[in-house]
């Protein structure tokens, strides 16, 4: 038989408590967009500062100054000492680490040195944290083998933690660029067909697209600087494809390189590529929408059905208790 002793005789306090919780949740949901911090202004300011540093550096180089301004900050002395002490610079190899960092938005020698130092310091920090945890919470009777296994596992996780964080940032950055890239191509098409040069189109688009994607505005701004100062314009386009590592961007880069080499028109290629990128974005959105119902099945079973059963069964239980 069902035990009704645990059910309160007067359900009004429970109903009032649930109503208060629902009201608080609704207020929090409505006010959350106003409480969350918007970093768009900070990122736009960083893009503007980086553009100004590029201009000052090139101006100082042209004027023959002996102390030109640096575009990228030098590495920290502590990280540099660690890299030099353990000779970690050999891991850079053919520049794969620098390319990985550039895809995540980190450029220059400073991030490379910091990443190499982090891959050495993070395992040690995780190992020390694991030892502190075992000394504080584990029983002294625990054998030595599990403690060694926990410490080694923490160190192994710490070695790959910087790579995981870097890949996560790269994925978010690529997603932002991928979403705004079709609109950027449309703006470039308008600029090119109105008679602007490729450098002018990149500069104008970098100023306008920052509202939608600060990452794309930053990449196009750097490409504009490279087109202005590199001797080989093809290298500037290739750098854009390497920094973003997106198929849509690489296709546009190939079209621009061919236009530079053979003099082919850029407008028609940009129009076709913009439509293709827009179709790819729509296809990806449809795939995500199609995968949503299976993902919602388990949360609905765990959280929605018990509440539904409670709402349906509670009035009957209250009536049975009142009848007794």
Automatic annotation (TrEMBL):
- What topology in the membrane does the UniProt record assign? Multi-pass membrane protein
Origin, by domain of life?
Bacteria
Record key words, sorted: Cell membrane, Membrane, Transmembrane, Transmembrane helix
Domain Type II secretion system protein GspF: start-end pairs: 185-313
Listed under GO cellular component are:
plasma membrane
Compartments, record wording: Cell membrane
**Coarse class of the protein's main subcellular location:** membrane
Q: Write out the transmembrane intervals.
A: 14-35, 112-136, 148-166, 296-318
Record keywords: Transmembrane included?
A: yes
Concerning InterPro entries, the annotation shows: T2SS_GspF_dom
Q: Which PANTHER family match?
A: INTEGRAL MEMBRANE PROTEIN-RELATED (PTHR35007), PILUS ASSEMBLE PROTEIN (PTHR35007:SF2)
Q: What's the protein here called?
A: Type II secretion system F family protein
- Species: Aurantimonas marianensis
